[in-house]
Structures are given as C-alpha cells and as structure tokens.
Specification:
Layout (H helix, E strand, L loop, with lengths): L1 H11 L2 H35 L10 E3 L2 E3 L1 H36 L14 H14 L1
C-alpha cells in the first residue's frame, strides 16, 4: 500500500499534471467569459437581425410528451458561436505571437563563404576521430 501511495504522489506532482490542472482551470474561466459574450452580446444581436426569433421556444407536443427541438437548435447555434469566438481569439493570439517573435529575432547575416580548414585542423580532426575508435 505504501508503494502505491508513493507512486501516486510522484504521478500527481509531475509538472505535466500540474500544468494540465492549471490549463483546465484557466480554460473553464475562459469558457465562462466566451459563453457570457455569446449569450449576452452576440446572440441578442443575431436575434434582432433575424426578427426576434428565439429558437428555445420551438417545441412539438406528442401526446403527453413535449419535444423541445428549439432548445437543441439554440444549443447548436450557441456552440457554433462559441467555437467561432474561440477561433477568432486564438487566431489573434497566434498573430500577435508572430509579430512579437519576429521583432525579437536578430537579423540574419548574409551567408559567408565557407573557408577550407587549415592542414593543422584537418590533422587534429583525424587524430580526434582515431582516438574515438
């Protein structure tokens, strides 16, 4: 039992597991922000453009059961909008990384003509290679 606990501690404290936990927490917070943006800003604007249609109210009654297919349609629309917003944000972040990384790079000097090594260097390389064997 002690070995199992030690093995679990080693697994849980690995850098990858900690990084993954942080990514999940940040991802959940970012997901809430994007969902709020879609629910509170983008979806109402789209509703106005489409004449005030609210898909959530669409339903079909079959006997005693009510099939609320409008909720499904609204969920698909919400998913598509959330995916689109996340795509645009990630694309913007990647573009910013490209711009900032390009500025950090030093200009590459023009290629210089390769110079043939001297006889002494060739001899030292031969000695080095023979010692490796």
């Amino acid at each position: 039992m002690r070995g199992f606990i030690d093995e679990f501690k080693a697994f849980a404290m690995k850098g990858n597991v900690i990084d993954l936990a942080v990514a999940v927490v940040i991802g959940a917070a970012f997901g809430k922000i994007v969902s709020s943006l879609v629910t509170n800003i983008i979806t109402p604007v789209i509703g106005l453009i489409m004449g005030g249609i609210n898909f959530s109210d669409l339903a079909y009654t079959l006997g005693d059961a009510e099939i609320t297919y409008g909720v499904f349609i609204q969920s698909v629309i919400d998913f598509t909008l959330v995916a689109l917003v996340i795509f645009v944000v990630v694309k913007g972040i990647n573009k910013a990384h490209e711009v900032f990384d390009r500025d950090d790079e030093a200009p590459v000097p023009p290629e210089k003509k390769l110079v043939e090594p001297s006889e002494e260097i060739k001899l030292l390389r031969e000695i080095r290679d023979s010692l490796k064997r």
